[in-house]
Amino acid sequence: MVAPEKQVKQLDRVIIRFAGDSGDGMQLTGDRFTQETAAFGNDLVTLPNFPAEIRAPQGTLPGVSSFQVHFADHDILTAGDAPDVLVAMNPAALRANLGDLPKGATIIVDTHDFTARNLTKAGYTENPLDGDGLSEYAVHTVDLTGMTVEAVKEFGLSRKDASRAKNMFALGLLSWMYGRPTETTDAFLTKRFAKVPDIRDANLAAFKAGWNFGETTEAFVVRYEIKPAKMAPGNYRNITGNLALSYGLVAAGVQSGLSVFLGSYPITPASDILHELSKHKGFGVTTFQAEDEIAGVGAAIGASFVGQLGVTTTSGPGVALKSEAIGLAVMTELPLVVIDVQRGGPSTGLPTKTEQADLLQAMFGRNGEAPVPIVAPQSPGDCFDAAIEAVRIAVTYRTPVMLLSDGYLANGSEPWRIPSLDELPTIDPDFATATNYGDGDDAEFWPYLRDEATLARPWAIPGTPGLEHRIGGLEKGDGHGNISYDPANHDFMVRTRQAKVDRIADSLPPLVVDDPGAEDGRGAKVLVLGWGSTYGPIGAGVRRVRRAGYRVAQAHLRHLNPFPHDLGEVLRRYDKVLVPEMNLGQLSMLLRAKYLVDVVGYNEVRGLPLKAAVLADVIGGLVAEAEGIDVDLTPTTDQESNDD
Fold it and tell me: Rounded CA gap, 15 and 185, in Å?
């Protein structure tokens, strides 16, 4: 048999979504395809999306797990609004994702599970593969399960075990379609299943069978090629936000000379940080899996008291439980990094879905006047730098710091250029080594005397001769640090702790505003301001508006408390300020209160990232209003092919 001649078609980008039952291995399939794509050199952004249950109801819509990867030959910012290709392993996966597909999208369906029972579970009254209900799409019906079982029968597995390799068959087929290198997957499967040779060999055989099927079948006559992206020189790796946070904490420990102590209680979606840091004892990292959230943060504060870098990781429900202990760290003025990987709430909420609704909790969620600096990364790779920045602030200013990541950043991934050590800042703990009050025999150590520049108190390691001191949750007397109930002292200390956090703004660079026409007097009238993981969708939406010929400026906040010194001046520079958030307007509220600027909020709380196309329409409407013009964002053919 002669293999059909295949046409090779050049693309500049594609969005693929793998979807199936939560037991079908879609996260593993998507992750392996992503690693292949990273090895090839494309720019990429991913969006894993899975149920909260360990084993969600099989064959039902709530049990669908998906993994979306957007890759391109140019710089991209998001995982994409709508898939160009959907791989659906069962009826529920098809039904759950069909509404996201644009007309003309490719659908690859595993026909094996399209039985009457599974169709009913998914809410179908008849088989959607029959008739012309999917005529708007390019549908390929393939018995992935059946071909997988046939491909691995030599290994003597049960039919159930053999069919589990169907995800590798699908991965092989998609790897062939898009010219992905297979060496990384071969090596991964060989290592992962090294102790179970039959499973290892079956998965490798299924993967190769999927590749060969694409190469020989007449059903797929087109193979696609997406060239590597042009990137700045350097060594790159694919990285998730949680992994980047872990590496950032390790690097911060090295750069500060401090041992890192993580006191944590497992919670989705932050647990990966605990898992990863437990592997790095060689860098002086100690991990303590506590019995609950309160014990985790308490242990971290204890580690800071004895001169280590105390860190605790959690999500929104855990921050609520840790709030009293964080207040203790505010009062004792000890360095502490609190990482909140935000998820859908309130209460247990949506544990595996993304949200950024903990900003006000981070800002005000403690009793009394307990100000805490807040830092937020903008992308998975940026989590590395955000972690180092949080440690810098915590150590330099002797304060707990909140780092607000979220589920989209934590589980999503992108190429990350590995920095060299000389690019990383040095963080000086500047431990107290001598008495600081009085002279001669009367010299004492006062734990609440302050550095004039930072207002930070001295950090003395317990056991240092002559520097014995007492700290705790009761109010401190200015300077000497003894317990004080004096009203005037309390007012002074409250204002001093707030002033210390405000003083952090002195060390921040000016806010970077991307406004291409500003230098020659043709600046935009509309500014889009964001924070956290909205960076990608906002940037993609702004690109669309600019490609259509309209002016719009963009800025993104890394520091949410304190704000950069020039933020107020930047806001007042524009006629309209749009603030997109995955909450009901928390940053908008803070900006209105502090700067009396009537910002316009765009708010969604759907457990999913914002969509670039929707933001572009909202931005376009504001541009039309601000400039008194009609705005048409209908893309040309060229613009459609360069979506971001």
Answer: 20
> What is the mean predicted confidence (pLDDT) over 338-352?
97
One-letter identity of residue 304: S
What single DSSP character describes residue 152?
A: T
The predicted model scores a pTM of 0.95
The mean pLDDT of the chain is: 96
Decide: 607 and 408 in contact? Cβ < 8 Å: no
> What's residue 597's pLDDT?
97
Please state, in angstroms and rounded to a whole number, the distance separating the CA atoms of residues 556 and 565. 14
Question: In the chain, helix, strand, coil percent, each to 5?
Answer: 40, 20, 40
* pLDDT at 55 exceeding the cut of 80: no
Does 34 score more than 90 pLDDT? yes
pLDDT in tens, 448-470: 999 999 999 999 999 999 999 98
Q: How many helices (H) and strands (E) does the chain have?
A: 21, 22
Question: Which residues make Cβ contacts (< 8 Å) with residue 630, sequence separation at least 6?
Answer: 624
Rounded to a whole number, what is the distance in angstroms from the first to the last CA of the chain?
42
Residue found by looking up tokens 């899975």 in the block: 50
Tell me if 79 sits within 8 A of 46, measured CB to CB.
yes
Q: Where are the alpha helices (DSSP H) in 549-598?
A: 567-571, 586-595
Residue of 194, 207, 102, 85 whose CA lies nearest to 144: 207
| Residue whose tokens read 């060689």 | 282
Under 8 Å CB-to-CB from 229, ≥6 apart: which residues? Answer: 41, 42, 43, 72, 73, 74, 75
Render pLDDT for 161-180 as a digit per residue (tens, 0 to 9): 999 999 999 999 999 999 99
Which residues lie below 8 Å from residue 286, measured CB to CB, with a gap of 6+? Answer: 259, 260, 261, 262, 303, 308
For 185-246, the three-class secondary structure string (H helix, E strand, C coil) is HHHHHHHHCCCCHHHHHHHHHHHHHHHHHHHHCCCCCEEEEECCCCCCCCCEEEEEHHHHHH
DSSP E strands in 379-446: the ranges are: 400-406, 413-417
- Whether the per-residue pLDDT at 325 is higher than 70: the answer is yes
Distance CA 460, CA 429 (A): 10
Q: Which residues of 556-591 are buried (b: 16+ CB within 10 A; e: fewer)?
A: bbbbbbbbbeebeebbebbebbbbbbbbebbbbbbb
Q: Cβ contacts of residue 448 below 8 Å, gap of 6+?
A: 333, 457, 476, 477, 478, 479, 480, 481
- Phi, psi for 427 (deg, rounded to 5): -115, 120
Using DSSP bridges, classify how beta strands 13-21 and 85-88 pair: parallel, antiparallel or unpaired: parallel
Which pLDDT score is estimated for 173? 97
Looking at the DSSP bridge assignments, the partners of residue 222 are 7
Amino acid at 605: V
